Amino acid sequence: MSESRKEKLEAIDVHVHFGGVKALNGVNLSLQSGDILGLIGPNGAGKTTMVNVLSGFQMPHPGTVKLNGENVSNLSARKMARAGIGRSFQSARLFPKLTVLENLVIPGLGIGLSRRAATSQARDILDWIGYREDPDRQCDSLPYSDERRISIARALALRPSFALLDEPASGMNEQECDRLMQIITRIPQEFGCGVVLIEHNMHVIMGVCHRIHVLDGGKSLAEGTPDEVKKDPKVLRAYLGEQASRPEAVI
Amino acid sequence: MTHFIQVLIDAVAIGSLYALVALAIGLVFGVMRLINFAQGDYITIGAYSLVVPSAAATPALMFGALPWPAMILCVILTVVVLALVTERLAFRPLRNSDLTSLLISSFAVSYFLQSLILMVHGGRPKTVSIGDALSRAVEIFGVRLPGVQLLTMVVALTLLIVLVLFLKKTPIGIQLRAAAEDFQMARLLGVPANRVIAIAFAISGILGGTISLLVIIQTGTLDIRMGLMPTIFAFFATVIGGMGSLPGAVVGGYIMGILSVLLQAYLPAELRPFRDAGVFSIVILILLVRPQGIFAKTAKERV
After folding, report:
1. Domain spans of chain A?
2. Could you tell me which chain B residue has the CA closest to the CA of A159?
3. CA distance A108 to chain B (A)
4. Which end of chain B is least crowded, N or C, by CB within 10 Å?
5. Do residues B193 and B83 make contact, with C-beta atoms less than 8 angstroms apart?
6. CA of B167 to nearest chain A CA: how many angstroms apart?
7. CA distances, A171 to each of A11, A119, A130, A138, A248 (Å)
8. What is the pLDDT of residues B32-85, one digit of tens each?
């Protein structure tokens, strides 16, 4: 499944205002295939808004989103999906009355595969994420952690150039998180895509991301490797307030 | 006992009809959140296409004069085209507007189609006789089965099976089910919205045309409002079944059929005129116990 071409996703000087609230205020972001970029920040920092912008749910105003150098800021969410941006949501949003397999066949059909090819791709991906249960099980009866894994699998079944994962670890226990981390780490090489990861669980973020972008109040606060970000005093202040002094204990 | 079995067969036959209409309404509601009250007029127009437009009470046959395979094909095709045209002209432009606008639009389409029939065919009821051979009864184990009822049950069952296979096995069928559950998510995963909605309307047309024929074979009467009662019953069927659930719509259809026939058969004679009031009271009771319907989706509304 892996592809060798390098693709690039960029957000340039992105602003999003909701009335008087500046959800994003001049954020720059870029990543290439192969990258895993973590997007973190306190609640209300603008993380989900950023992912909404990158996936065409929200138009930046002003600002630009470029995919391989081409301006895609005005594309609808559906066209973004077709252009190669796959996304999972905070809530899994699987089709509850469809089976696990059917949920994964849908994106395959969506990118123009035949039913047979879409089905075999779906089985491969299920196998890849380590889902060993009955693929013909209806999704409304899945345990929570399976639901989350399948929703990631479904975003990947679109064979995206970039996969945007919105809090995939929320509500998972430690063991499930570890399994999830293994999956996310292997996404770039297996699918040849870049990953943007929003996550509150710092263990997951620090464990899988190559780079981390920190947002606070709609602005970029810092960007760097996990180690750099961990030690950045600005980041610590944003998370803990002025009295933050023991960096390692925090993140 | 024989009488009871006879009543039960009546109930299943009429329930099959309601189930088909409910399925048509349920499918379109699934992909568009539109309760298409014009479904009844699709049925009416399908029936009127059997005869040549005229003011006569016993008009000459149009599609009704064709050999039966051609007749079935022409009637169904007429209704399919009608359903697709109304979708394209009246519903598609409103797809992103709120549910109220869609609902009002469906009433508008309904009145428009009724006026159209009034203009073309005149207002008074007409008689048309097709499939006379089917009114003969078949006797099985001492139970007399009118051919029409047998036909209705067989046709409904066949259509249900074909539809289930279509929805489960074909790519567009799977996409249609996905769209019915979460339209926005389906689009994000590459499901072609226009095609899926058009297919849902086309199926509602196929069901509508079939119902036209079954109703006409049974009653032999053309009336501008002939599609109205089945549609209202079917609408309640979809509500009891749980809006958006197709198995629910079918089960709801049978429940409505069985309720109305049982009340008709066992209510004291002086109360029979109030049969429908009885049926709808029971529907209200069912909804008081299960407001979300019998097969309601458990999925919560999410943002």
Report:
1. 8-250
2. B189
3. 8
4. C
5. no
6. 11
7. 29, 29, 19, 21, 24
8. 888 999 999 999 999 999 999 888 888 888 888 888 899 999 999 999 999 999
